[in-house]
Amino acid sequence: MELLLASAVGILTACGIYLVLRQRTFPVIIGVSLLTYAVNIFLFASGRVVMNMPPVLSDSAQGYTDPLPQALVLTAIVISFGMTAVVVMIALSAYLSARTDRIDMDDEAEGSAK
Amino acid sequence: MTHWIVLPVVLPAVMAAFMIMVIRHHLDLQRIFSIIATAALVIIAGGLLNHAATGDVLVYELGDWPAPFGIVLVLDRLSAMMVMLTSVLALAVLVYAVGTGWDSRGRHFHALFQFQLMGILGAFLTGDAFNLFVFFEVLLIASYGLMIHGGGSTRLRAGIQYVVYNLLGSTLFLFALGTLYAVTGTLNMADMAERVAALPLEDTALIRVGAALLLVVFAVKAAVLPFHFWLPASYANAPGPVAALFAIMTKVGAYSILRMFTLVFGPDQAASAGLQSWLLPAALVTLAIGMVGILGSRQLSRLTAFAVIASMGTLLVAISLFTPESSAAALYYIAHSTFATALMFLIADMVIARRGDEIAVHRPMPQGGWIAALFFVGAIALVGMPPLSGFLGKLLVLDAVRGAPSTVAIWTVILATSLIGIVGFARSGSILFWKCHDPGIVTPPADEDELPDPIELARAERAMRAPSPMAFSAAFALLGLIVVLTVLSGPMMAYATATVDQLYAPTDYIDAVLRRTAP
């Protein structure tokens, strides 16, 4: 389980960073999303990985899992969802007004790409 | 008094929601409410500052949950000072935005402005690390909207870079918080400070990683080299008044460094020792890059953006030493550089509205004399020549580093870069304001591609026809604040010194948050 979680975080981060370094906005946005997935899993694991344990007090519980990281992940998911929506909208309007989806602002490179 | 501390967060939040839901189609009402709310913020900040000046640490438990479990807002001298700074700056910038009509060039300017204020003020007041992240996101998401306010393809493309860079910063912030939580099991700053101090040295590897990540995140916000790349394009392309408000946003990064690395990872904390030594060389190079950028800029807006980088460099040189004297100097410099860079952005906006962004010879612009005078004084303040507060700030920084191991290097860099900055400002100032009066110079006929689009042209003509008294009074108010800062430097330094005493003796803060003292 730990191996699975750790490698998931690692692979997602690696893919995310690779995509963020691309030049077009679409892969960059996908990359940012992958990074936020990675960080969500990472946050989830920061309260130690426990299987089949309740996060709230109960009489029959054998033990507990830390509820706080789950709350943090929830907040992080909501925020990253909103941010992704914003960045998609800005990217779309930038593409529509500039007719190019290159993320760098080097005008000469843009001219040669056309 | 106890509920006052939450007002700087609640008031803008309620105002913003009110503006979007009730008066979204009435620009005049929005203007009135926005200015009233911001003026009320200044008054509230004054009350808070007055209370904090007594040395009392005020804690507000949200939802009445006691400290390590619930989220707290904490008001000490440092927070109160930053809240005051933000609200005063916001009022001046808002008056300018209304006066120039910037707020009518897109929708929801005032709502976004209030949300931005909510995020900034919340970040200064919170005593919880994760809550700091949330307020960072609030101020960022509002700043995305403000940054692309008014539209235009260059601005939108600069906006994407800004958003993506900050999203990466936020991701890193979450990684840092996760790491710290995994080791300490708490996110409350005061509680974390105690637990980090109690950790045996051999278990601190993860803490070190977390602290380093956190430093990187704050360095991104503060635009410290090598994380400054986002700043010139974003600030140069943002609307003028928005860029002026952003002058406080880099200070949020500086504030967070100062807060976290005195409270949680204090200078005598073995767990994070050595991290701070990375900051000084980075700050020095930032300062140098900023000043060289001023000299090399071909657009006025970029020049001003590099002035922000340079002032952040000076500020972080002072912060990075983590001695009481240098931190006090840093606090004075924070106030000065916020007002000075904001003033410069407003001046740049006035110039751009009248003759375009390029630093080149044009025909003289209307109200050129006033603007030239403002530019002259603003430049003096920014590069740190006497008699204004920039000089005092730099003098304090230079004085504070005396005796540090790297005094010679710091003095050399600060003094040499000041000279570069003077040359840079003198060059652009004389081209912008003097050469246009030289009868020997003929304005080159404008290139076909260089012609601004008709809408921009119409705007510029409108700006020329109607010299807005509100815009000028906002700029002169900022100038007045710089003068006040200079004249009252004695009381200001006394306050800064008291603040630093509080920062370097964090037991008061920790006890107040964890309710160990008698209420």
TrEMBL record, chain A:
Entries under InterPro entries matching the protein: CPA3_antiporter_subunitC, NUOK/Mnh_C1-like
Descriptive protein name: Na+/H+ antiporter subunit C
Keywords: Cell membrane, Membrane, Transmembrane, Transmembrane helix
One cellular component term from this protein's GO annotations in UniProt: plasma membrane
Pfam families in the cross-refs: Oxidored_q2
Organism: Pontibaca salina
Bilayer topology term: Multi-pass membrane protein
Regions crossing the membrane: 6-21, 28-51, 71-96
Family (UniProt): Belongs to the CPA3 antiporters (TC 2.A.63) subunit C family.
Source superkingdom: Bacteria
PANTHER family, per database record: ANTIPORTER SUBUNIT MNHC2-RELATED
Primary subcellular site in the record, as a coarse category: membrane
Subcellular compartments: Cell membrane
UniProtKB/TrEMBL annotation, chain B:
Signal peptide: none
Subcellular location: Cell membrane; Membrane
One Pfam family linked to the record: Proton_antipo_M
Keyword Zinc: no
InterPro entries, per database record: CPA3_Na-H_Antiporter_D (IPR050586), NADH_UbQ_OxRdtase (IPR003918), ND/Mrp_TM (IPR001750)
GO cellular component: plasma membrane
Transmembrane stretches, start-end: 6-23, 32-49, 69-97, 109-126, 132-150, 162-185, 205-231, 243-266, 278-296, 303-323, 329-348, 369-388, 408-426, 471-496
NADH:quinone oxidoreductase/Mrp antiporter transmembrane domain: residues covered: 128-415
UniProt main location, coarse: membrane
Membrane topology: Multi-pass membrane protein
Gene Ontology process terms (BP): ATP synthesis coupled electron transport
UniProt keywords, alphabetically: Cell membrane, Membrane, Transmembrane, Transmembrane helix
Alphabetized GO MF terms: NADH dehydrogenase (ubiquinone) activity
The keyword rRNA-binding belongs to this UniProt entry's keyword annotation: no
Function: NDH-1 shuttles electrons from NADH, via FMN and iron-sulfur (Fe-S) centers, to quinones in the respiratory chain. The immediate electron acceptor for the enzyme in this species is believed to be ubiquinone. Couples the redox reaction to proton translocation (for every two electrons transferred, four hydrogen ions are translocated across the cytoplasmic membrane), and thus conserves the redox energy in a proton gradient.
UniProt similarity note: Belongs to the CPA3 antiporters (TC 2.A.63) subunit D family.
Protein known as: Monovalent cation/H+ antiporter subunit D
The organism of origin for this protein: Pontibaca salina
Taxonomic lineage: Bacteria, Pseudomonadati, Pseudomonadota, Alphaproteobacteria, Rhodobacterales
